[in-house]
Amino acid sequence: MEKIQILYHSKEIEKVEKISKGDWIDLRAAEEVHLKKGEYTLISLGISMKLPEGYEVHIAPRSSTFKNFGLIQTNGVGIVDGSYCSEKDIYKMPVLAVRDTVVHVNDRICQFRIVKNQPEICFEEVEHLDGPERGGFGSTGK
Fold first, then answer.
1. CB 46 within 8 A of CB 89
2. In angstroms, rounded to a whole number, what is the distance separating the alpha carbons of residues 57 and 114?
3. What contacts 116, CB < 8 A, 6 or more positions away?
4. Which of 23, 26, 81, 107 is catalytic?
5. Quick one: average pLDDT of 42-53?
6. Is 81 a catalytic residue?
7. Which of 26, 31, 134, 137 holds its CA 20 to 30 A away from the CA of 65?
8. pLDDT, tens digit (0-9, with 9 covering 90-100), for 52-108
9. Which of 45-49, 93-97, 106-110, 136-140 has the lowest mean pLDDT?
């Protein structure tokens, strides 16, 4: 079992709990945020973490974040590398409001999982690829 060191910057937010293998882990807003349609902000998640060696964090909105708050995570999926690990490296979620909204302290707004870093790779230039043709970009599901 891997261990993550976690530092809470707010006594108000609920603590992150141990999860089952494969699950995403919910993160909560550590501040109340009022946004008007079209406004952008970084919402503090109130934590800093030190990951196990060789891992990174992937942060994504929860499936209900857009429906409940009208927020879009502006970088699609946030990637946090293992070197972002000091007490001052506070996790945040960059969001754009598509409607007027309020996020309260402890609202679950995003989720994360840790992923092993990509292994070292090299590229081999070739004249042809022998994989099967799939029909081009956007061709599946027609």
1. no
2. 5
3. 54, 55
4. 81
5. 97
6. yes
7. 137
8. 999 999 999 999 999 999 999 998 889 999 999 999 999 999 999 999 999 999 999
9. 136-140
